[in-house]
UniProtKB/TrEMBL annotation:
The gene is ADAMTSL4. One of its GO terms (molecular function) is metalloendopeptidase activity. Gene3D superfamilies: Thrombospondin type-1 (TSP1) repeat. Residues 1-27, 301-324 are annotated as: Disordered. This is ADAMTS-like 4. Keywords: Repeat, Secreted, Signal. It is found in: Secreted. SMART domains: TSP1. GO terms for cellular component: extracellular matrix; extracellular region. Its main location: secreted. GO terms for biological process: extracellular matrix organization; proteolysis.
Length: 324
């Protein structure tokens, strides 16, 4: 009985089993394709460069692919085989200043100059972007020759210390090297004897002279407007640096300074004026007193410029005598 139902292979006669058969399938060849290698390193270590890669036209046959003639991939868009690259900006060292003056005036010192790392665009960048082995020197030793000491001094003072009679003139004396001041008032490293710092001078015999002496001006006599100031004038006799008060008659031959002068304290502001309070309006009990208040300028003209906040009261309540 045939039912076309699948059963176990043990139920069939193995000797009658047909041999396996193969037949071709999917007979169309696989399409070709472009295959690109990894990009090469950039052609330069800094600045604009180029990277390259290899391109192959390949085609798969079964489980493996094979390089085929590039013509087979001519219908496909070919990938780029080069591209621009820039690992970093190119920078270089630049000396931006001349050497400084030596740090000492004599002997061995140091001098410096500015060195900076600059990009191709001219901007200052971090020094790490420049080759440290190529960096120009920024500091070096300098020799200004041996240090020689000598005495140096100023001119004598223009005036004698006394206005008449004997006095002294002074000057400064220092022991110097080309590098600075040497210590030691007795000479220090200066071998030669120290020059004099003072010498005698004489302005001639002291002759007594008389003169008017004026005190400072007093304060102005008014707080505003035009006023006057006063001062005292006395006759004094001068002998050298000493002064003695003498009678005014000894200065009579000299023009006497003014004892009074005008002073201007600026324009006076208007101010409030009042009359006396009037009599109380009641003879006993609570009454009222009044008075007139006016704003007047310095020339006693009526004005509206007084400060209203400081205006005196015009009325006041009075209660002096109780009504019996």
């Amino acid at each position: 009985r045939h039912t076309d139902e699948e059963v176990s292979e043990r139920s069939c006669d193995s000797a009658a089993r047909p041999a396996p058969e193969e037949e071709p399938c999917n007979t169309q060849p696989c399409p070709p394709f472009w295959e690109a290698s990894a990009w090469s390193e950039c052609s330069v270590s800094c600045g604009p460069g180029v990277q390259q890669r290899q391109l192959q036209c390949r085609q798969s046959f079964g489980s493996r692919s094979t390089m085929v003639h590039p013509q087979r991939c001519s219908h496909l868009t070919q990938p780029e085989s080069t591209q621009a690259c820039q690992l970093q900006l190119c920078s270089h060292w630049e000396v931006s200043s001349n050497w400084s003056t030596c740090s000492v005036d004599c002997g061995v010192g140091r001098r410096t100059r500015s060195v900076r790392c600059v990009s191709d665009q001219g901007s200052v960048v971090n020094e790490n972007e420049c080759n440290s082995r190529l960096r120009p020197q920024g500091s070096e030793e300098c020799n200004m020759g041996p240090c020689v000491t000598n005495w140096y001094f100023t001119d004598w003072s223009n005036t004698c210390s006394a206005q008449c009679g004997p006095g002294v003139q002074k000057r400064e004396v220092v022991c110097l090297t080309r590098g600075g001041v040497r210590d030691g008032g007795g000479g220090g490293d200066c071998v030669a004897e120290k020059p004099l710092e003072m010498k005698a001078c004489n302005r001639g015999p002291c002759v007594p002279t008389v003169m008017w002496y004026s005190s400072p001006w007093s304060q102005c006599s008014v707080l505003c407007g035009d006023g006057s100031q006063r001062r005292d004038n006395i006759c004094v006799k001068k002998m050298g640096s000493d002064f003695t008060v003498v009678p005014a008659t000894e200065c009579a031959h000299l023009e006497k300074p003014a004892a009074v002068q005008e002073c201007d304290m600026g324009e006076c502001e208007p101010q409030w004026f009042t009359t006396e309070w009037s009599a109380c309006s009641q003879s006993c009990g609570k009454g009222l007193q009044v008075r007139e208040v006016r704003c007047l300028t310095p020339d006693k003209q009526h004005s509206q410029a007084c400060d209203p906040a400081s205006k005196p009261e015009q009325e006041q309540i009075r209660n002096t005598i109780p009504c019996g």
